[in-house]
Each structure stands twice: as structure tokens, then as C-alpha cells.
Amino acid sequence: MATRRDWLLGAAGLILFGDARAQGKLEPGIRNRSGDVRISGERIATGADGRLVIVVGRDAMIVRRNSTLNVLANGFRLVTGAVLTVFFPGRSRQLSTPTATIGIRGTAVYLEAERGRTYVCTCYGEAELGSAFDPSARETVRTKHHEQPRYLMAKSSPQMLMQAPMVNHSDEELRMLEGLLSR
User: Which segments of 36-94 does DSSP mark as H helices, in order?
Assistant: First the structure.
């Protein structure tokens, strides 16, 4: 069972073993790192050319370029940018962005936090989506294959939850993350 400490130790591996990848070695928890990736306490940030693939326990994630996230005890807060995650079934997680709250239990989810809205694709599994501004704007999404992507809008929008297309992530990326977890 992965804890916040596990996430931080995995992320700290970037700092402690920064040149191991160049030498052909994999750091504990880190499966791929490229470009500008910074770790500061509980915060992971990637620059314009940054990308991080990390495995913690039975969970895996890709942190995309121009992203900032704060690791929490039972999930994370995506401040800006994009993250694709695969979580092991059975343990609930709480994810958040400036405009959304997402409760999940063993699923795959792709998030993009933009100014004024969050894009959420429950790639498969179940998620409880909610507005960070209006507790009554909630929806449970159950999917098998990207059927119900949503935008969760800022409080100034007349509609808080809106249907969205599936964008900016792929089944190939999901299979790659799942493959890391089966090793």
C-alpha cells in the first residue's frame, strides 16, 4: 500500500539518482525522466520539456510537461498541467485541481488543469467528479473505455459539468503504465 512518504521517496529518487538513467540504471520508482523535472518537498514540477514516469507501490503515473502537482497522503493536487494515472483496485484516492475534486477507487484517469476548467477522462473504472465551487455539481462516472470525459468548469460558468471529447492521452500510454505495474 503506497503512502505519501512512498510517493515522496520515489520523487526524491530523481534528485539522488539524477545521473543513473544516463548510465542505463533505473532509479527506485522512477521509470523515465526527461527534460526539466524539479522536486521540492511535496511538490513535483515539470518544465516545458519535462516529463516524468513514476511507479509507487501498485500505482503509476505520467506527469506531463508544464505541470505542477502536490503529493498528498491519499492522492495529489494537480495545480496546473496534465497527469495520466493508473491506480491499483481497492484503495480509494482523492485527486483535486483548482476547479475539481475527484474521488476514485482502482481506476485510470487523465487530468488536465487549465485556467478556468479541468478536463477529466475516467479511462476505465469509476470516479466521483465534483465541482470545487458547488457541492451540488457532482456526478459518478463509470466507464470501460473513455466513454464519459468531462470538463469541470470554474464558478463563473453557468454549467459546472460538461461533456468533453477524449483528448491528449492514448491507450498505448495506459498499456505502458499497466505494464510497469505487472513487473
Answer: none
For residue 51, the cross-strand partners are 34
Measured over the CA atoms of residue 56, residue 61, residue 62 and residue 67, the dihedral's sign is negative
Query: In the structure grid, which three cell numbers stand for residue 38, read together?
Result: 524539479
Contact partners, residue 84, CB within 8 Å, separation at least 6: 61, 62, 64, 108, 109, 110, 169, 173, 174, 177
Give exposure, 40-65, as e/b (b: 16+ Cβ within 10 Å): eebebbbeeebbbbbbbbbbbbbbbb
SS3 letters across 135-148? CCCEEEEEECCCCC
User: Residue 17 pLDDT > 60, yes or no?
Assistant: no
- 106-162 pLDDT per residue, tens: 899 999 999 899 999 999 999 999 999 888 889 999 999 999 999 999 876 678 899
Contact 147, 124 (CB under 8 A): no
| Listed residue (169, 117, 107, 178) closest to 143, CA to CA | 107
How far apart are alpha carbons 122 and 129 in whole angstroms?
Answer: 10
The x, y and z cell numbers of residue 142, run together, are 463509470
